[in-house]
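pasting for ref
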Amino acid sequence: MNLEVNLAGLRLKNPFMPASGTFAYGVEFLDRKDEIDITEFGAIVTKGISLRERFGNPPERIAEVPCGLLNSIGLENIGLERFLKEKWPLLKEIGVPVIVNIFGEKEEEFEILSEELDRAKVHALEVNLSCPNVDKGGMEFGQDRKVTGRIVEIVKGKFKAGPVFVKLAPNFVNIIEVAKVCEKKGADGLSLINTIMGMAIDVEKREFLISRGVAGLSGPAIHPISLYIVYRVYQEVKIPIIGVGGVYDYRSAIEFLMVGAKAVQIGSMIFVEPGIINKIIRDTKDYMRRHKIDDIKKIIGCMQKVKKGE
């Protein structure tokens, strides 16, 4: 049975990995092997790294809502220098491809981040142009096709160590058109999707549950939306897609593969069940045995060939 996939040149032992922002930097789980074995993952995706340390948004930053999670962390992270000194030396010894998620408030910051991470020879980058929880950068950049194109060109011009993926979200933007721009400017792949903007209110106190008011909604509530977006974007671009959004078990993960995603990220459900990625890997193998599928590549994109209504 073969679960290996080639993701824009990255050889993954299976298609499953954590989503950025839900698994810290990855190394924090090295001593929890009885619960979470990260050496089994297809890849590790780090928390978003900015040029300088960020402290994020003030609390309250997380709130559970029906079928999902609102978060407004604000990309809190230790910054590039400490990441390279404290986390990367441990990460690169795990033996699993590492995709470093990067974020900048200015185009120049993406240039420096890409150059330094290329020098460190990290395995791949994921460019965050979709975070809704910051005042500068993130979704602001991803909404502008010209800015998106320039940032992709900048990152591709500086980072040669591996593929560059761009993470997008459908907030106030035609995501198909932005995806086409990313492909045209040289992106090696897309991560679809980031969280969808939302909010919740404590009606007794007349207060927003999240201090910033608006936040990003993730979890099972957004899975049908993200699945449809991957399905549609797959029809418009040739670069590989990583499906992200609301995965809660092996079935929802396999759905992404069936509509064309080459890999799948699991996010919010890690907070509910920390070992869920290992469980999805086991359950996917069981699914393949039951359906006599010897190679996972045989199901990637299979639903693109099914005519609607059949």
